[in-house]
Write a structure and sequence with these properties.
Belongs to the FKBP-type PPIase family. Tig subfamily. GO terms for molecular function: peptidyl-prolyl cis-trans isomerase activity. Involved in protein export. Acts as a chaperone by maintaining the newly synthesized protein in an open conformation. Functions as a peptidyl-prolyl cis-trans isomerase. This protein is α+β, with helices and mostly antiparallel strands. It is about 45% helix and about 20% strand. The mean pLDDT is about 90.
């Protein structure tokens, strides 16, 4: 076998591989000898079929296998000897299309090699960690919001009309074309006006009614309504308002605390404080992560494989197009062209992706089975009742596994950078942290 370099420009590589006919023939014979003891053929005992007959019967198929294995072996040996890592799957094509048995096989292989990543002194990276303490006012505000979710309703004075946010207790009977339908009736039903728990247009028509009053509520079922017999149909609900109740916030006391799993009010405040500070810490980490990526991006410079940048730019353009056109859920749309802005962003992402991969490899960062399981289960919760099917789908799909593994790996590498970088804490207000987070979203 001969391997001759034909291209070496930047990260682009090209090689001509020639596999001698004798080498292929020897490999075919080797496969036949290996298989001969198990082959049965009419007129011959098992394992006694003549080699010439075996070659006539199976030689053509085995020649194809021999070609593939030999070329794969040549490629693997080349990458092992050269140290090159292809950015994407190498392009391999046979050049002597008029090949016939007895001829040498000529193959061209081309690819873009991943670049050498320069060393980065992570101890030279200076970062600022924004720290926000959960103040008493923040805890009180969160506690009030919590009490609001636990609100009750108390009867309004007689003759007072229902307002948005009130609870009305109603009897109702729905009809389409003057015929009652299944699921369209209820008695003593507590409905919070403005909760949007009924079909659009229903609740608004009950605002202003008093206890004891009746009204025909006219609505149209949405065209995408779950029950096909009702979808898009006009309906009339005969409603009787039996009670009108105003919302009453729950009292801030130990009883409320127990509803949320705390021993007393002080314990609930402590839980809220911990939750708030965990939220602040998460937001602070996002800000510091962006600062870390900006710092790393400014520290390194190396050639990038054009194919990777082009693929990433295309993916960015595709994603942004779908965000601007959410009504298009499939891929049946015009070709999406990439812009200079897409390419600029792709260049940064590819450069940082390669750098983080290199840092993670050198630091022996690994994603554990437990971390992957946790990530899969987190995704599976988005499919209630189908968690097991989703879990099994992920286990069989290597690409999906990589999509879940990549962000975990990246975060672990970022944590590694945090450990080595010079980090200075700065206590700021909640508003200042919020502004920093909003600045990230605007970029």
């Amino acid at each position: 076998m001969q391997v001759t370099e034909t291209l070496n420009e930047g990260l682009k590589r090209g090689y001509a591989i020639t596999v001698a006919a004798a080498e292929l023939d020897a490999k075919v014979n080797e496969k036949l000898v290996e298989a001969q003891p198990e082959i049965e053929m009419k007129g011959f005992r098992k394992g006694k079929v003549p080699m010439a007959l075996l070659k006539k019967q199976y030689g053509e198929r085995l020649m194809g296998e021999a070609m593939q294995e030999t070329i794969d072996g040549a490629m693997n040996k080349h990458f092992e000897d050269s140290g090159d890592r292809p950015a994407m799957q190498p392009d391999v094509k046979m050049t002597n299309e008029d090949w016939k048995p007895g001829d040498d096989v000529s193959v061209d292989m081309s690819y873009e090699a991943l670049p050498e990543i320069p060393e980065v002194d992570l101890k030279s990276v200076s970062l600022e960690k924004l720290v926000v303490k959960a103040g008493e006012a923040d805890v009180d505000e969160a506690l009030a919001n919590l009490a609001e979710t636990a609100q009750d309703f108390a009867a309004r004075d007689e003759g007072v009309a229902a307002e948005d946010g009130d609870q009305v207790v109603i009897d109702f009977l729905g009809k389409v074309d003057d015929v009652a339908f299944d699921g369209g009736a209820g008695e003593d039903y507590p409905l919070v006006l403005g909760s949007n728990s009924f079909i659009p247009g229903f609740e608004e028509q009950l605002v202003g009614l008093k206890a004891g009053e009746e009204k025909d509520v006219k609505v149209t079922f949405p065209t995408e309504y779950g029950a096909e017999n009702l979808a898009g149909k006009d309906a009339v609900f005969a409603c009787t308002v039996k009670e009108v109740k105003a919302p009453v916030a729950a009292e801030l006391n130990d009883e409320l605390a127990k509803k949320f799993g705390a021993e007393d009010l002080d314990g609930l405040k402590g839980q809220i404080s911990e939750r708030l500070e965990a939220e602040y810490a998460g937001a602070s980490r996002a800000v510091m992560k962006r600062a870390t990526l900006d710092a790393l991006d400014g520290l390194v410079s190396f050639d990038l494989p054009p194919s990777l940048v082009e693929a990433e730019a295309g993916q960015i353009a595709h994603q942004l197009w779908h965000e601007d056109n959410p009504e298009v859920t499939g891929h049946d749309h015009p070709e999406i062209e990439t812009t200079e802005e897409h390419t600029t962003l792709a260049t940064r992402r590819v450069r940082l992706g390669l750098l983080l991969a290199e840092l993670g490899q050198k630091a022996e960062v690994e994603v554990t089975d437990a971390e992957m399981t946790q990530a899969i289960m987190g995704q599976a919760r988005q499919y209630p009742g189908q968690e097991r099917e989703f879990f099994e789908f992920i286990q069989k799909n290597a690409q999906m596994q990589q999509q879940l593994r990549a962000p975990i790996f990246e975060d672990k590498v970022i944590d590694y950078v945090f450990e080595l970088a010079e980090v200075a804490e700065k206590e700021v207000s909640k508003d200042d942290l919020q502004k920093a987070v909003e600045a990230l979203e605007e970029e």
